[in-house]
Amino acid sequence: MKVINLGERSSVINSYMAQLRDVNIQGNRTLFRRNMQRIARAIAYEVSRTLDYSDKTITTPLGTKDVPTYDDRIVVGTVLRAGLAFHEGFLDTFDQADSAFVAAYREEGTRENIKIHVEYIAAPSLDGCTFLMVDPMLATGGSLELSYKAFLSHGTPKKLHICCAIAAQEGIDHLCRVFPDDDITLWVAAVDPVLNDDAYIVPGLGDAGDLSFGPKLPRH
Questions:
Q1: Which stretches of the chain drop beneath a pLDDT of 50?
Q2: For residue 106, what are the CA distances in angstroms to 117, 130, 142, 217, 218?
């Protein structure tokens, strides 16, 4: 798997990430979701440069013009609920894309005994598509792996792009083992070094779902 860390070079993405992380700003849920969308649009632009293009003849009010546009059939898939704002940013860029959703959650516990559950999936056919698996946070990589395997019940994509706002190095290493093929790309806006004992990214930014939509009651 090819890993592209967009945070390694100076760009406005780093400013968006700084606001996402800042405890003095995180209370503004609208801004938090907005920054997730901004990061998603920036990553989507980078992904767009890798697509297959061909000229299409466009009729204007005064004539015609050949314009190179992408040929890929794009499907954007995300994990509910934390990924919703991130997902919207990709749809802003790829406005003709189809969408896929999976509900996956992990039981609270230490990183050694975390269990991942997948409960719901809704997706179009993925056969032959360019699939963008978008999830704002990549911690252990377990939920993303199981979510992708669940999506495969709806077909096999031609290309896979995994897109995250923030990732722990442990999660990246896990995905590199799961997806060894060179034609799979992980795009990430920031990489943090470690996970704590509860498998949360450190220094990270907290819980993206709660910061986007408010705290939730614990599962019983």
A1: none
A2: 6, 27, 9, 14, 11
Of 213, 199, 184, 186, nearest in space to 143 by CA: 199
Closest CA to 82 of 48, 106, 98: 106
pLDDT at site 120:
86
**pLDDT per residue as tens digits for the range 157-167:** 999 999 999 99
User: Can you tell me the distance from the alpha carbon of 108 to that of 199, in angstroms, rounded to the nearest whole number?
Assistant: 9
Give the Cα separation of 126 and 115 in Å (integer).
27
Which pLDDT score is estimated for 105?
Answer: 66
HEC readout, 98-129: EEEEEEEEECCCCCCCCCEEEEEEECCCCCCC
Query: How far is it between the farthest Cα atoms of the chain?
Result: 65
Distance CA(209)–CA(83), nearest Å, equals: 7
Please give the structure tokens belonging to residue 36.
Answer: 């997730």
pLDDT value for 183 = 87
Q: How far is CA 182 from CA 44, 70, 83, 178, in A?
A: 20, 22, 25, 12
Which tens digits make up the pLDDT trace of 53-63?
999 999 999 99
**Predicted pLDDT at 115:** 65
C-alpha 36/C-alpha 86 separation (Å) is 5
Distance CA 150, CA 124 (A): 13
